[in-house]
Here is the input.
Amino acid sequence: MTPKFFACSLLSLAILTACSSVEDREIASGGFSYLKNEVGQQIKIPADIDTPDFNDSFKLPNLGPEAPRDFIGERLSILSPSLVLPLVTGSHVEEGSKSATVWFDKIDDSQALDTTIWNSLLAFLESQGIGVQKFDKEKQQLISDWMVIKEGEEDDSWYSWSKSERSVGQRFEFNLDLKPHGRIASLSVDLIDYKEKQTLQGPESTTPSDARRHEVDILNQVIDHYEREIRLATAQRIQKIRQGLPMELGFDEDGESAYMVNAEYEIAWPRLLLVLRKLGFDVKDYDQSTGLLFVKYNGTDAGWWSTLWSKDQYALDLKTEEYRIKVTDLGAKTSITLLDNENVAFPVNKMTDLFPTFARTMEADDLDI
Here is the structure.
C-alpha cells in the first residue's frame, strides 16, 4: 500500500465517520423500499384442483393491541436490548422484568443495607460531578440533577475523526425498596427529564427514542461503582487483617483479665483465627455473632529437630485440652478472654504468662500459616 493510497483511505474513513450520526448508527443500512410494498393476495385455487398443504412455520404473528405500529423503517432501532448487569456479589435481576431494576442481598452486617446502597450511589454521583436535587431517606428516593453529556469532549485522540455537536441532558429518579427484614433491597431507575440537541443551533428534543436504554446505562454505571467499592474495601480489609495488630493486657466488660487488641471487631475476629491456628489451636466451632469460639490446643507442628537448639517461639504452656475463647466488640478495640472448658476465665497470672506469645503472634506482619 502506497503512502498516497493510505492517506486517501484515511480521508475516506474520516468523511464516512463524520457523516455518520448517532441516528444513522441505530438504523438498518440500505434502503427501505419494502415499506411501499402492498400486502399480497391469497392464492386462489381453482375449484377442480386440490388445495395444497400450507405451512405456517414462518407466518408472522398478529400484532397485539398495545404494539407500536409506527416503529418501522428508519424509526426502528436495530440496537440490541440493554441488559442490567448484576456484577455485585449477591445481586440479581428478576427474569422477564422490563424495568431498570437490580436486587441486592445483604452481605455485610456492619451497616444497614439501604445505607450501604445510598452511600455508594451518592459517592458515584459525586465522582461524576452530578448534583442531587432531592434526597429523601425516609421515602427511599433520590432525584439527580441534570447529567449533561456532550459528544466529542472525551475522545480527543488523533484517530477520532468524528466531531459531533450532539448534547444530551438527563435527570433520573432512584427508588429503593427495602424488604421488612432488611436483608434484601431493590434499586430502580426512572428517566424523568430529557433534552437533546443534535447541533448547537438545532431544535431541542425532549422525548428519548429509548428511555429504558438510558435508565439501564446509568444503573449499570452505579452497579459498577458499587462493585469496585466492595473490591477496594475487601482488599483494604484483607491488608489490615494480614498486618500486625498491637495488643496489650487489660480487662473485659465483666472485669476478667483479657487481651485488648487495638482493632475493630470485624478486623480482630479473622485475625484471631489466624493467630490461633499459628499457635496450635484447632477451632472446633464458633459463632461470630456472639463472639464465642470452642477450641482445642494441640500444640505447634514444629519438629524435634527445629526445637533441638532453640525453644519453639509459638509454644504455649497449656495442656492439650479443650478451651473456650470469648471475643467482645468494644468499638475501636476488641477484647479476647481465655476460658477453660467449664467457661471459667483464666486467672490474671495465667493470662500474663501466655501474653508474650499471643502478643508476638498477633503483632507479626504477613502472618504465615
About this structure: The CA atoms of residues 160 and 312 lie 66 Å apart. The chain has six helices and 14 strands. The helical segments are 3-19, 22-26, 113-127, 211-242, 265-279, 348-362. The longest strand covers residues 184-197.
